[in-house]
Amino acid sequence: MEKNLDHLTSEEVETLMQRYYAGESVSKLTKEYGISVRSSDLYKLFPPEAFANYICEYCDEPLVINRPSKTMKNLPKYERDLYCPVCGHKPFQTHCNCENCQEEERNLQMERLQQIEEVYSKPQTPVDFASLSFENKVFLGAICRALLKENLYEIAPFSNSEVILTPTDILRKKLYSSLIHNQVIAVSPQSTLDAFDIDSEDFPNTFYIYRVTYFLNLIFPANKKDLFTEILDPSYYCTENADEAVILWKEIAVAECIEYLQYQLDKVNFEFTPGEKTYKTFDIILNDFSVSQIYGIIWRAVADASKLYLEKGISKKHAANSVIGACERYAERAKINGWDLTQYNRIKDLPQSELSLFYFNRVLGIGEMGFRVPPTIV
Ligand SMILES: [Zn+2]
Ligand SMILES: [Zn+2]
Prior knowledge:
The protein is mainly alpha-helical.
């Protein structure tokens, strides 16, 4: 007794198949042909059916479909079941995983990496750190502090880094855009493929700003370390950039207020997208109060809105929108009456961002004052 059909001639196999599909007893057939197989598995030993009008693009062989069991013999056949008997290629499947397709995919990847290498290896004019604006120096310091690689040259991708670079996404986008636009950082030709949109017609010219690796496009002095000391532990803050410094302090402070507002609103399930008015409101309140005091103002306003929503039945949207106005009015009253507002602490769920830490500790050297004092010239 054989476990396959190798002992039969092709004519015998053909006859066996005809008799099987005609409905003859399978146990009788297996006995007669000397095959040792479970009756229900006999059809699996049959050679697949070849379709001469479908040819494997790699092997030039006709594609085949496995034989059905006799109960399935009248069902329609589908192109997706066609495969190459030599390499296993399945041209009608969305993602064929045969050796040839894998090889083709690898070649395509190599080609794409070469394109990236080509486009991003073009020489760029490096910029002088000393010529950067105050803000860009700070942005660069923050990003280097958080994501500079050991080689003191490349900036690791922000994606998957778990770094808290800025209090808000909007400020992070501004930081990156500003550094890219001023060519302080440039896309590294060593960036990984997933940092680019491979389906884009413009490939590889469009890239995901948080997924690419950057390199520092700076003029490096003979002693590279000196430049990094100035970037990471700077001494460039002076009275000449005092005005820019307050503006940046305020920008970080507004972002920290918005971050806290968003956090408190999320906790009570109020949906809210901060717009121009929200920014402007915090910008004004920060003339008189510190972020730590505004934390208190926000906390109270959200608690009141939540109470209104629960007790008076106003809509969630209305309640959320009332928060900013409440913050504004409360801050006005506190100012006019000279109230000494409570200082709130930072909270565990909102760790201080790298930008904030770097700016207050390293650039201005004022530490916690950045949080506890309204933005002012130091
Ligand atoms: Zn093939
Ligand atoms: Zn394939």
